[in-house]
Amino acid sequence: MMNDEFYMQRCFALAENGIQYAAPNPMVGCVVVKNNEIISEGFHQCCGQNHAERNAILRISNKSVLEGSTLYVNLEPCSHYGKTPPCADLIAEYPFERVVVCNLDPNPLVAGRGIKKIEDAGISVTTGVLEQEGRFLNRRFFTYMEQQRPYIILKWAQTRDGFMDIDRTDNTQKSYWITNPKLKCEVHKWRTEEAAIMVGTQTVINDNPMLTTRLWSGNNPIRISIDRSGRIPATANILDKSTPTIIYTENKNLQSSNNLQYVLINFDNMLNEILTDLWNRKIQSVIVEGGLQLLNTFIQQGLWDEARVLIGNKMFGKGLKAPNFPFVPNSVKQIDDDFICSYFAINIQKKY
User: Fold this and answer.
1) pLDDT value of position 352
2) Which end of the chain is more exposed for a tag (fewer CB within 10 A), N or C?
3) What CA–CA distance (Å, rounded) separates 307 from 344?
């Protein structure tokens, strides 16, 4: 029904408010409607705190108004005890006429059990309202649950003539910015929205990045790098121990310390071992920021879900060519003279 879609869209808008702090939980919004009027709403603000349904219900002081009302929520109410009690049990306590759900929860601890608890309480349940839109909203969560790996976002900046770095034949070790300061703020905002950020050895050596959110309010992502033999210098910013950092290596002599962990892996199966380890650590999403070799490895193995290509209004003439990425962007956003091209692996078309 059209009304169901309208109120579900409101659930999506509320859910998005949790993008920085809900993970590894999904983003969830909830709306309570009676006589075609919203009487309460809520969203899941932070992992470990109340879920959206509980926030919406608790906002209503006179619970008698819930009789005959409809509760809308974009993900199946949980049915198990975790950091909070089951939302399905709470909903079942009250005289709702209907519960409308966008997506069923793929978590094996839920997976239809929440719906059953609500139906067993005599409440009508409708599912699948704007299902694809809901999956897109929680694409990180669904990828993590269904594919048992983090959601992978590739990100790099390139010049108008297709270079992602200057010519370093003279062994120059310096960072050269391609995009404008506004895009730099946008990149730091993205970092607050993902669980981790990954770069390769050469990027650390050349650019010495901090990989933090200095230009935007929010948590720093877990920093990840790959250093097969131990080439990263001890003075590198990512080894400063201010932020949790994981370095994948095969050098057994590297020593872990507070906030810095070296993890031994088999480099013959590098990406699969890394992604499995990150999944086991409950890291739901990763931004891969380069360099070229690391990006190409993800692209060639088809291990990516989203790509964000920043095109700066600069020309290098020569240098390190950006990855060959023969796809049509799903969207293009302009910020001053620069552009952000966004790609989604579930809906891509080749340029040729």
Assistant:
1) 36
2) C
3) 7
Q: DSSP characters for 148-190? A: SS-EEEEEEEE-TTSEEE---TT--------S-HHHHHHHHHH
Residue 101: name the closest of 150, 138, 149, 140 by CA.
138
Q: Tell me the average confidence (pLDDT) per consecutive run of 10 residues in the chain, 352 residues long.
A: 89 97 94 96 92 95 94 92 83 96 88 90 96 96 95 97 86 76 94 97 92 92 96 94 95 94 95 97 95 95 97 93 94 96 78 41
Query: DSSP readout, 262-323?
Result: EEE--GGGHHHHHHHHHHHTT--EEEE---HHHHHHHHHTT--SEEEEEE-S---SSSEEPP
What are the distances in angstroms from CA 277 to CA 12, 107, 112, 224? 31, 19, 28, 12
**Spatial CA neighbour of 87 closest among 56, 133, 123:** 56
Tell how far CA 197 is from the center of its chain: 11
Closest CA to 197 of 146, 243, 128, 143: 243
Q: What strands, in cross-sheet order, belong to the sheet with 98-103?
A: 37-43, 29-34, 70-75, 98-103, 124-126
Give pLDDT, residue 206: 87
Q: Which of 53, 186, 193, 194 is catalytic?
A: 53
Active site residue 53: yes
pLDDT at res. 349? 55
pLDDT of amino acid 112: 82
Alpha carbon 224 to its chain centroid, in Å, reads 15
Question: What pLDDT is attached to residue 330?
Answer: 94
Rounded CA-CA distance 313/330 in Å is: 21
